[in-house]
Design brief:
By secondary structure, the protein is α/β, with parallel strands linked by helices. It has 12 helices and 12 strands. Helix 2 crosses helix 5. The longest helix has 29 residues, at 79-107.
Length: 317
């Protein structure tokens, strides 16, 4: 005998699930995946680790499937967890967009933008950009992180970042790309006693025979140097490999070789240690950045404002 009341539709279990899936639990689940662990997510949300763990456990019990795999280095989502992650991000983003749009009528321009930029810009010209934008729109909160170009593209495509600013070709499908109104210049840095220190400018071919300070293989600058050196048939002699422009400048100041870094960064480093800056006379030393966003019918107002600020020909808010 069927004991279900006559007015109870067959879809009641799905409605029950929707009613029990609260936004805080979804937000914590997304945080656990993005931070790679329950403890780190709890710390970011200022919640007890045990409380986050219980919510994840209850969520798995509610959905009747494991969502996370616990590994030595942290947690990773299962296939079911990846599906929930996609839907949770969409739901949370939709709620943020609703709050952003409705709140803007009552309180003026406000909102939150997740901005991911090339690591070189994070320590070069972006602090000034964020300062100027924040002075103009003080109610817009910017969550700014650095990354390499491939990871920036993926983050925007997966909507874990709203805006990406990067170098190189954008290959990730589903992204809208604008030229950035900001650009920088690559220069050579050496110790003041280095033979190239007094040169007004140098070509890439002139670095042959000098020890070059390499950067990590997936660095855009390192890939660019290798590509351009191969084009002209000039092998670059490496003495040391480091991670980051600051380490390149430190090694160059110690006389360990020739480094290639952005001009703004070189100037700041030269102000506090013995470092000479030499112009790199190559057309590719002028770096053009790109701004990318997810291709969609409508962006949150805060995202539109920041894209308009960053991009030439970007969407107008």
């Amino acid at each position: 005998m069927n004991d279900r009341p006559a007015d109870t539709p067959a879809s009641a279990p799905s409605r029950s699930l929707a009613a029990r899936l609260d936004l805080m639990t979804l937000r914590l689940f997304v945080g656990v995946v993005e931070h790679g662990g329950i403890a780190r997510a709890a710390q970011a949300e200022f919640i007890a680790t045990s409380a986050v763990s219980k919510r994840i456990h209850d969520l798995e019990a509610m959905l009747r499937t494991p969502l996370l795999v616990r590994q030595r280095q942290g947690v990773v989502p299962t296939e079911a967890g990846q599906a929930l992650l996609r839907h949770a991000r969409r739901l949370l983003r939709a709620m943020a967009e609703m709050e952003d749009e409705l709140g803007s009528y009552a309180e003026g321009e406000r909102g939150q933008v997740r901005l991911m930029v090339s690591e070189s810009t994070l320590t070069d010209f972006f602090p000034g950009i964020v300062k100027n934008f924040s002075e103009q729109y003080p109610k817009i909160f910017i969550d700014l992180v650095g990354g390499l170009s491939p990871s920036i593209q993926r983050a925007v495509a997966e909507e874990s970042a709203d805006i990406g600013v990067l170098l190189g070709t954008v290959t990730e499908p589903g992204l809208q790309v604008f030229p950035c109104r900001y650009r920088d210049l690559l220069v050579v840095v050496v110790n003041p006693q280095h033979p190239l220190a007094e040169a007004g400018s140098v070509r890439l071919s002139q670095l042959a025979g000098h020890a070059v300070i390499e950067q990590e293989p997936n660095s855009f600058v390192q890939q660019l140097l290798r590509t351009e050196a191969a084009k002209i048939g000039v092998p670059l002699q490496a003495r040391i490999r480091v991670a980051g422009f600051e380490a390149v400048c430190n090694m160059a100041a110690e006389g360990l070789g020739v480094g290639v870094v952005p001009l703004g960064f070189a100037r700041r480093m030269a102000a506090r240690q013995p470092l000479s800056i030499v112009e790199l006379d190559e057309p590719w030393s002028h770096r053009e950045y790109k701004v990318c966003i997810k291709q969609k019918e409508r962006q949150p107002k805060a995202v539109e404002l920041l894209v308009s600020y960053l991009a030439r020909g970007g969407p107008q808010a």
